[in-house]
């Protein structure tokens, strides 16, 4: 396994399509990893898709935290709580900053030793061209820019904007409570800027943020960080880690090739 620099952000990835057969074949070790409250929430969730998203998200988070500790803390030993519908938090022991996202069978967990990341994953096939209030999604500058873009191209740009703003809202610790119209960045950046470059945006009147969209197949993934108040930030590297079940080997893949084996088109 490659050695990660302390400033790097590691993003663990998995899919419910790969997880469901493992759950059906041998569920006991999976549920033994989770807390009583997590198991109860899984069983109380009516939607099969939502229950798998939640179960895999917590299972993946616990194993990622354990790996981050160098294996010194077992996955089941982490005490994780959630206040209402808010972000999960680790109790009683130091833990890296983390963010969880899941959508359409894709599940991702980002961890950082020194930063509080925000993460969102969305299927590339999602088109927000219809049924979305663009004035609530876009900043005033973005809304004006949208009017100059051909109608056929707007859906993909709106889906990209939604993914970025979801990640940024998590980085601010507010989730959907943050008005998306406050967040401004280039609606249609040069193609060369993605996925290799960090891009900067602003929260109107309240500072700035950075985001990056690593390349996946079938999914759009966005990682966001809040910019420090003073001086330019030291932007970290990103490692994308396809999750392997316990007992098998997890090999970090370069971010340019990562999803080929994990998320098939």
UniProtKB/TrEMBL annotation:
Domain of life: Bacteria
Classification via InterPro entries: 4-PPantetheinyl_Trfase_dom (IPR008278), 4-PPantetheinyl_Trfase_dom_sf (IPR037143), P-Pant_transferase_sf (IPR050559)
Lineage: Bacteria, Pseudomonadati, Pseudomonadota, Gammaproteobacteria, Oceanospirillales
GO cellular component: cytosol
Segments forming domain 4'-phosphopantetheinyl transferase: 118-193
Family the UniProt entry places it in: Belongs to the P-Pant transferase superfamily. Gsp/Sfp/HetI/AcpT family.
Key words, A-Z: Transferase
UniProt GO molecular function: holo-[acyl-carrier-protein] synthase activity; magnesium ion binding
Species assigned in the record: Marinobacterium aestuarii
Protein's GO biological process: lysine biosynthetic process via aminoadipic acid
Listed PANTHER family: L-AMINOADIPATE-SEMIALDEHYDE DEHYDROGENASE-PHOSPHOPANTETHEINYL TRANSFERASE (PTHR12215:SF10), PHOSPHOPANTETHEINE TRANSFERASE (PTHR12215)
The protein's name: 4'-phosphopantetheinyl transferase domain-containing protein
């Amino acid at each position: 396994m490659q050695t990660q620099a302390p400033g790097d952000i590691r993003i663990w990835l998995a899919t419910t399509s790969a997880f469901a057969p493992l759950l059906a074949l041998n569920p006991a070790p999976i549920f033994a990893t989770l807390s009583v409250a997590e198991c109860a929430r899984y069983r109380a969730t009516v939607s099969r898709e939502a229950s798998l998203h939640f179960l895999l998200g917590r299972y993946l988070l616990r194993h990622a935290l354990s790996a981050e500790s160098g294996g010194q803390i077992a996955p089941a030993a982490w005490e994780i709580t959630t206040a209402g519908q808010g972000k999960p938090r680790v109790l009683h022991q130091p833990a890296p900053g983390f963010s969880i996202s899941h959508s359409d069978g894709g599940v991702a967990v980002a961890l950082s030793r020194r930063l509080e990341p925000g993460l969102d994953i969305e299927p590339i096939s999602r088109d927000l061209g219809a049924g979305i209030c663009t004035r609530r999604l876009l900043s005033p500058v973005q809304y004006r820019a949208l009017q100059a873009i051909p109608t056929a191209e707007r859906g993909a740009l709106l889906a990209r904007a939604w993914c970025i703003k979801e990640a940024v809202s998590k980085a601010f610790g507010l989730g959907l409570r943050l008005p998306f119209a406050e967040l401004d960045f280039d609606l249609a950046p040069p193609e060369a800027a993605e996925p290799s470059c960090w891009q900067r945006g602003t929260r109107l009147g309240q500072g700035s943020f950075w985001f990056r969209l690593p390349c996946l197949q079938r999914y759009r993934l966005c990682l966001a960080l809040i910019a420090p108040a003073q001086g330019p930030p030291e932007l970290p590297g990103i490692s994308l880690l396809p999750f392997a079940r316990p007992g098998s080997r997890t090999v970090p893949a370069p971010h340019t090739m990562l999803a080929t084996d994990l998320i098939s088109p």
